[in-house]
Write a structure and sequence with these properties.
This protein has 151 residues and is of the alpha/beta class. 36% of the residues lie in helices and 21% in strands.
């Protein structure tokens, strides 16, 4: 039986930090599903969903251990659908932990067989966030060093 992890997020955009989490998760599980979800608290996306899905897929072309999907349901339900035993989340700081811990506990309540794996962000990637990249890009700044694909 394959060990399957879901890496959920809005990925607006998908950064080198996200890529690092996926790559490190592949050392733990057999398959990683990068699941781009819709966050109702984020009214609009900066990058179109289809465009970002294409960019993320381009990073993992030829890697049959990574699947990239879009979803619009409870993450715990998505995990059941894909028979995933794990959710994976990256933590940059204690604020991330507090937020992710609450979500992890709720997901465990909704799906008792679902474990969350927290990976501490690699130090050199910790300052990178999608919101900072969006801000720099919006005002014409160079962001390519922070992304694993061409815009």
């Amino acid at each position: 039986m394959n060990r399957i992890a879901i890496f959920p997020g809005s990925f607006d955009p998908f950064t080198r930090g996200h890529e690092d989490i996926v790559n490190r998760t592949l050392n733990i599980v057999d398959i990683v599903i990068v699941a781009m979800g819709h966050n109702p608290e984020k009214n609009t996306r900066y990058f179109e969903a289809d465009y970002m899905l294409e960019r993320i897929r381009s990073v993992y072309t030829g890697n049959d251990r990574v699947e990239v999907i879009e979803y619009n349901e409870l993450t715990a339900s998505l995990a059941e659908k894909y028979k995933a035993q794990y959710l994976v989340r990256g933590l940059r700081n204690t604020t991330d932990f507090e937020y992710e811990n609450s979500i992890s506990q709720l997901n465990r309540y909704l799906n008792k067989d679902l474990e969350t794996i927290f990976l501490i962000t690699s130090p050199e990637l910790a300052p990178i966030s999608s919101s900072i990249i969006r801000e720099v890009h919006k005002y014409g700044g160079e962001v390519m060093d922070f992304l694993p694909y061409e815009l």
